[in-house]
Amino acid sequence: xxxxxxxxxxxxxxxxxQVNIPAGRFRMGRNGAARHDQGPAFWVNLPAFxxxxxxxxxxxxxxxxxxxxxxxxxxKIGHVxxxxxxxxxxxxxxxxxxxxxxxxxxxxxxxxxxxDDFPVTAISWNDADAYCRHYGKRLPTEAEWEYAMRAxxxxxxxxxxxxxxxxxxxxxxxxxxxxxxxxxxxxxxYMYLSPVKAFPPNAWGIYDPVGNxxxxxADWYGAxxxxxxxxxxxxxxxxxxxxxxxxxxCSFHACNAFGLFYRGKSLPxxxxxxxxxRCVSSPEK
Length: 285
Known about the structure:
CATH class: Alpha Beta
Number of helices: 4
Strand order of the largest sheet: 1-2-3-6-14
């Protein structure tokens, strides 16, 4: 079954629908950024592809585990790298016993229970890669991710501009409101995770283009250069995998990472309570 959204075909599958992203050219990265790894800006040409309209949800991952008996990185190592209200800036806690089923641990599962339409978290890059491959998909390259999330925009922090709110003052993404992480003002309505369709999609029908959870990409972390590229795949080898978009834990007063420029990075087997993902596939699938 197909539906039309803003002139783009949305293909309805078993899990998240996928949006057909047209071939095109865009300017990736930016010049003059405070963080050196966000630039220099360079042109990228990409062929058409499809990307999940929403982040992979708790319900989606539950079905995957039921089908495959997959054991995640957190279950193997016995902990999740977690963050929650009351902690210090840039502080992470090794939460023993936490998994994708209870990303905040058993002591908080009653207060913050997982819901079917929450993005799955407490999974590693390896777990996300295994999920996508099982369904004949893959993780997006860093270039594909930024191109799809920008949805035709150029140079702005967010797909819609540089503000976190619309003209009526309504929040457009899930991030941390507070002077520090001791307390979240919850002005956007959410302490931690938000449902995958809680905020409006970008111009191409993609929800959570920024905020809510970091999104894993296929690429190894490496430096940009200003040469124009055709369908770049990132470095051939590396130590850290790139994540983009920021999360509910990011605030204006701490990491300030939510948006389309900041490049997160982590070890492939490290599970975090604020990392998630979506998958891509070729247009003929």
